[in-house]
Amino acid sequence: MIHAISKITLYVNNQEEAKAFWTEKAGFEVRAEEQMGPDMKWIEVGPAQGDGTVFVLYDKKLMEAQNPKVNVGHPSVMMSTDNIEEAYKELLEKGVSVGEIKRMPYGNMFQFEDMDGNQFLLREDTMSGWRTGIIS
Question: If 31 and its partner were Cys, which of 74, 97, 122, 133 is the partner (CB 3.0–4.6 Å)?
Answer without folding.
Answer: 133
